[in-house]
Structure formats: structure tokens, C-alpha cells
User: Fold this.
Amino acid sequence: QMQLEESGGGLVRAGESLRLSCAASGRAAGIYNMAWFRQAPGAAREFIAQISAGGLTQYYADSMKGRCTISRDGGKNTAYLQMESLKVEDTGVYYCAAGSTYFQTSREKDYDFWGQGTQVTVSS
Assistant:
């Protein structure tokens, strides 16, 4: 099993930045793709970004492309999501996920482990 724990959420104003962290523990995290999803109030969970196991490739959804950067620190088994120019519509619960696929994917079913989520609230 792998445990994922997100942190870094909070209340920010529109236009500000925020960096989320996802610490992985348990099963060898280095062999898994890592991804971020978010769920806005009343909406389905949506994919934001994925980074490959080795950290060499990233895949972004159009919703936040250009405003966020996914990265990972293999030595710390931690993935990050740096978000810039936040908008009110970016408000939601942000989830970290890990999957063992060898391709880029935005599908929830391709991820085996999930964190509990961290709340991000963007005020106008």
C-alpha cells in the first residue's frame, strides 16, 4: 500500500499563488506516476496534471495549463503543484494520486492510490 498526504492548501486571493505538496509513503513511490485532481463544489473531480515516475514528462489539462507546474522530488517521495494567477473558479478540494500506468492519462481509474485532499479557496 501507499499513503499519500496532501498539504499546502488554504485561503488565497485571486491572482495569488499557492504550492501544494503530496508526500508519499509506504510502497516504493518512485515507480509511480503522480497526478493532481481537483473537485469544485457540486462538480465532478477533474484531472489537472500528471508527472511521470522519473519526472521527465508532464501532462496538463487545458483548465490550468500555463498557470500550474507539476514537479516531484524523488529523494523526498514528494510531488508538488505550483499554481499561479489563481482564479475564484480554482476553488475546490485538490487531490493527489499515484498510478502505475506507463502512459499519460487523465482517467481516475488509472490511479491506484489517493490522498484525502486539501482545500483551496480563492476569494475575489
User: Anything to note?
Assistant: The mean pLDDT is 93. The first strand starts at residue 2 and ends at 7.
